[in-house]
Structures are given as C-alpha cells and as structure tokens.
Amino acid sequence: MTVTAVVGAQWGDEGKGRVIDYLAQEADVVIRFQGGDNAGHTVINEYGKHALHLIPSGIFNPRTQNIIGSGCVVNPQSLLNEMESLKAAGVDLGNLWVSTRAQMLMPYHRELDVLEEAARGKDTIGTTKRGIGPAYADKAARAGLRMGDLLQPEWLETRLDNALRTVNRKIEILGGQPLNGEELYALCMEYREKLGDRIIDTLPMTRRAIEQKKHILLEGQLGVMRDLDWGIYPYVTSSNPTASYAASGAGLPARTIDRVIGVVKAYSTAVGDGPFPTELHDADGEKLREIGGEFGATTGRPRRCGWFDGVAIGYAAWLNGMTGLAITKLDVLDSFEIIKICIGYKLPDGAIVTDSMPDTPVLMHVTPVYEVWDGWLTPTSDCRHWDDLPKEARAYLHRISELAGIKIDYVSVGPERDQMFAV
Ligand code: GDP
Ligand code: IMO
Ligand code: MG
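A: This is the predicted complex of the input protein with guanosine-5'-diphosphate.
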C-alpha cells in the first residue's frame, strides 16, 4: 500500500493533472483535498484533452474511485458541466463521489469574488473569480453550506436563510444585486436531484481503502507559493495546497501518508498578482509562454513566465516533506541556448538569501541571483528513459534536484501520458 500526496511545488500549473493521470493507472482511490473550480488540471490521454476543475484526475481509470474531499469547495453547477463534458467523451463516471462535508460554493460566492476584487482598486489579487475566497471565508465563519446539506432539505433551508441575511447585506454594500432565497433553494433542489446519489460520507470508503492496503493518491490544487499560510500572502488562494493539509482535506490520518511527490515545472510560471522574483519581461519570457502554451487552463489568462527558482523549490521541498520530484515540461527548454537557474535572492540591503523565503513585502524587492547553464539544443520529447536525455539536460535536472535536496522520481517531456517516465 502507498498513500501518495501529489502537490504543486511552485506557483501552480506545474502539471499536477498529468502526473495524477499517469500515476492513477495504478491507483485504487484518488482524492482531491482542497480548492475548487479555480483549478485547471490538464490531462491528455486516450479520451482526448480535458482541463479538470473539480473532478479528480484519476477519473480516466475506470477502476479508480474518485473522491472530491471535505477540504474542497464545490460549485455544483461547475461539477455538473464537467461531468457532462467527460460523459460526452465516453468517460465512466460511476466511481465519482463527493464528501458530504465538502463546502458548497454558491452563486453568491462568485458574485462576491468579483465585487471584492473590484473593491480592492489597484491592489487586486488577480483571483480566478470562481468564488473561492468568499466560500472559504464562509466556511471559517461557520456560515457555509455543505454538500451534505443537499440531502437534508429542512436543514438546508434554515442554513440558507441564515447565510443570506449576511450575504445579501455584503452584496448590497459592495454595489451588487441581492439574491433571492427561494430561487437559490430551488436551484439547490435541482442539484440534489442531479448529484444526490454521489454525495456520501467518504470516510468509510477511505478507511476501508487504508485497511485493505490500497494505493491512494491525494491530489493537490495550485502550489505552495499560493498557500494561504506559507505563500505570498495576500496574493494567495484561501486554502492550503501543501501536503500537511492533504490528510485533513482528504479524510485520512496524517501518519498514513508515505510519499509526497512535488510536481515541478522545469521553469517558472504564475497567473494572478503578487511577487514572482524570476519573472522575465523579455524575449525569453515570450518564448517560454509560446512554446510552453502558458495560458491559464481555467481563465485563459497569459501566464507570467520566468526562469527556474531554486530558492522556492528548496522551501517547497522542505515544507511539504517531499520524497520525490516529478519534473515536467523539460521539452519546453529544448531550443534555449542558455538556461538560467535562480539560486538566491539579493535583498535590498545587499544580503543574499538562499535557504529561506522572505515574506511578501520583502520578496517584492528582491533581485534573483542566477547561475547560467548550457542548453542542450536537441529535442527531448521522444526520450523515454533517463539515459535518453542529452547530458546537458541531465545536468540541469540534477541541479534542480540538488537545490530541492530531493531525488527525481519522474520526468515528463511532453503533455501526453506516454511522455512521462520514472527515473
Ligand atoms: P496543473 O494545474 O498543475 O495540472 O497544470 P496545468 O494543466 O494547468 O498546466 C500544465 C500544462 O502543461 C498543460 O497544458 C499540460 O498539458 C502541459 N504539460 C504538462 N506536462 C508537460 C510536458 O512535459 N511538456 C509539455 N510540453 N507540456 C506539458
Ligand atoms: P491549478 O490547480 C494557477 C491563483 C490566482 C490568484 C490566486 C488566488 O490549476 O494549479 P483564487 O481564485 O484561488 O482565489 O485566486 O491564486 N490561482 C491559480 N494559479 N493555477 C491554479 O490552479 C490557480 N488557482 C488559483 O490566479 O493569483
Ligand atoms: Mg492548472
């Protein structure tokens, strides 16, 4: 048995979806443990190309149970849309489950996300506008509705009435249109009709899986640099994408996790606002965006691109307790004559930090210290073994591993399932 958490090691969009899809070929259970439909996890396999937002990326293996865990915020409408599109592609959804304890993301959360971003003026976070922040705020304020409430209509009605009293006042203050309780209740009843059978207490399922020594994957969303506690606060998401939260958000004892795979892109990207030290505003940045197809899987926004950040990886590796790395998108660097790696941050006072992550107001003013590496100028997308890789590419990967202090478990050289291999 192994319980493996798969987490983003950078600013998100590292390729978690494709790594889970690859590993899920051997998995009995895949559990999404946090986030909502702000995620865009792209998977390319025999069913085509899919950007998954809520549904775990193990859904393409018909033998795998797929659970949306209690740590998630679930927009039922997005879930239904996603189910439709997967069904149309011939994907079996018989093993898709939603925890009764997952928060329900309501239409007013999306509205509040938009209104709150507008109210921030020029100090925006650059959210995905999916309502994630307001939904987690309601969870913490104990004003949220949960997916299991759909199965208890009377309880739901009271909870909704209570929530709307505050929500509608907030919406009005921010200049939006208040929502109608009866309409929302009717919408919930529609969700109950369509999703009710899949909303279950998932704990007996995960407990049985542990007892029967099954292979379990815990799928994270986003990456450590946008973690609510450890990321570039306030330019973060409203949950914890780090492995420590995987147990809680999935419903497992913490000590059952025995592998933590950090998914790492061979360079850096970020969407949304906030400090991103290695960002490039030049032709190299453009080239990374173009070759890497770096546009948001959820919002379509162009991603900010930059060189690999060795300080961030050291931080991410330690904080997550990573046991191995999955390095993706190596092929995107194939045509670069030189490649840079950031190995330290120069602070405004001239000091250089290599092994700690400055807090946001400081991070905004650091200058990256780079090492320069020779490119390999050879296509790698047909490589299927470590030894197939050009020696400069192996040296580059070794350096990433050294900066992380973690061994490499997997490398990917293209988006297709068979373009990833174990090392
Ligand atoms: P996630 O949110 O971490 O699952 O990552 P995204 O799906 O948002 O972004 C990763 C993008 O890179 C997707 O478009 C993938 O299809 C693509 N991708 C993943 N691995 C590779 C790779 O090794 N090479 C190339 N060229 N593309 C990749
Ligand atoms: P995956 O799982 C990249 C970013 C947003 C914004 C911040 C907060 O595909 O890696 P939110 O909507 O969560 O309140 O936005 O986090 N963000 C992501 N960036 N990939 C994602 O998901 C993201 N989910 C949120 O751009 O800066
Ligand atoms: Mg993504």
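Residues 8, 13-18, 40-42, 44, 293, 297, 328-329, 331-332, 412-415 surround guanosine-5'-diphosphate (ligand 1) (CB under 6 Å). The CA atoms of residues 214 and 324 lie 20 Å apart.
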